[in-house]
Specification:
Number of strands: 5
Oligomer: single chain
Strand order of the largest sheet: 3-2-1-4-5
CATH class of the largest domain: Alpha Beta
Shape: elongated
Strand content: 5-15%
Radius of gyration: 32 Å
Helix content: 40-55%
Number of helices: 14
Length: 365
């Protein structure tokens, strides 16, 4: 039997191997090779290394010999494989990426697998692999909205400051109205969910009227003051403000966060606010409804109580909504705001720079 060759480590090699063997960022195969060499330097045989690390002794022998002949070059760099050479040339791959990022197909707004395959002469499976390796998804798009409010920064700092550092002896309320909530009755009864089949509901429906949900959420406790009204004019907004006034402790100031809807700035509303100095109105920047925390509550109540509901009347819809509000208020949970104004502003600046820069860009390599 061939004798096992002992490895003698030179200055600095042991420290480098030990660092590799403990690394949490290196690839696992490199960590394993470093462990093999360290054990070989301790005098263990190939079989002993295999038993210690749970690998085949031939693997230990391969990397022992590779290190002896080439040192770190032998264990850190792979030899060219002997498998089948790729049939798709790099130029073809780059051409698919270029077309995807910089062109549009004739008669369509974006590339599909079939269109790209026809345009390049490659198979759809090949195009799919290229897109997948580059993280390209032409079939997907995301929506965005950048505010053009000239006072964006000041309003952003004001509102985020209320979330992160609310004033003492005051209540911060995120308020808004969700208008045009439809009472929809399906044309036919749906089928319930069962194993291997999701629930069903008809695509068509009968409209039975609409309502508007006014809501103000305490950003500290999560408790919601809510009321349904048939319209959303300044009269309804003023009525809702009066309800907030009645249902909150009179000794506390009220900081109301709302959007720039014109009914919130109506002269009658301004006149009433002037006579009630404990109300302080804070407007989010135009086009920045995501800054109003109550919008998150609207999303939850829509998803959990309205979207799949069947309502034969507006009254039935309003009862469902108010029952959901009561249920929420039994164990309210606030939404915790964590984003700082500076971080949001930096992100908006980057988005504006990208929007004003080259329309199409991408790294092809």
């Amino acid at each position: 039997m061939r004798a096992t060759v002992r490895i003698e480590l030179m200055d600095g090699e042991r420290e480098r191997l030990e660092a590799m063997s403990r690394s949490r960022t290196l690839e696992g195969r490199l960590v394993l090779r470093a462990q093999i060499i360290l054990l070989a330097a301790q005098g263990l045989s190939n079989r002993g290394i295999g038993e210690e690390l749970g690998i085949d002794y031939k693997t230990a022998m391969r990397w022992r010999n590779r290190f002896i002949s080439q040192r770190f070059e032998g264990i850190e760099h792979e030899r060219p494989g002997r498998g089948r050479k790729p049939r798709i040339q790099l130029e073809e791959v780059l051409e698919v990426v270029r077309k995807t990022l910089q062109t549009k197909p004739d008669g369509a707004t974006h590339w599909s697998l079939r269109r790209m395959a026809l345009a390049t002469g490659l198979s759809r499976a090949t195009v799919h692999r290229i897109w997948q390796s580059r993280g390209l998804k032409p079939h997907l798009t995301e929506t965005f909205k950048l505010s053009n409010d000239p006072d964006f920064e000041a309003k952003l700092v004001d509102v985020v400051g209320l979330y992160l550092d609310p004033p003492e002896h005051a209540i911060v309320l995120s308020a808004d109205e969700k208008s045009q909530i439809q009472a929809l009755d399906r044309s036919q009864p749906g089928l319930p969910m069962k194993p291997w089949r999701c629930g069903t509901m008809t695509h068509d429906y009968k409209r039975n009227g609409t309502t508007t949900l006014f809501a103000a959420m305490n950003t500290l406790t999560g408790k919601v003051i809510a009321e349904c009204m048939p319209r959303h004019r300044h009269q309804e907004w003023l009525k809702f403000l009066k309800r907030i006034h009645r249902e909150t402790p009179k000794k506390l100031d009220l900081h109301i966060i709302c959007d720039n809807y014109r009914t919130h700035k109506h002269p009658e509303v301004q006149k009433w606010l002037a006579s009630h100095p404990r109300f302080h109105i804070h407007f989010v920047p135009t086009g920045s409804s995501w800054l109003n925390m109550v919008e998150r509550y609207f999303r939850d109540i829509t998803e959990n109580h309205i979207r799949r509901g069947v309502f034969r009347s507006v009254n039935e819809l309003e009862c469902t909504i108010l029952e959901a509000v009561d249920q929420h208020n039994e164990a309210p949970r606030p939404y915790i705001w964590t984003a700082k104004a500076n971080d949001i502003l930096a992100k908006v600046i980057r988005a504006r720079a990208a929007q004003n820069g080259p329309r199409i860009s991408g790294n092809l390599h």
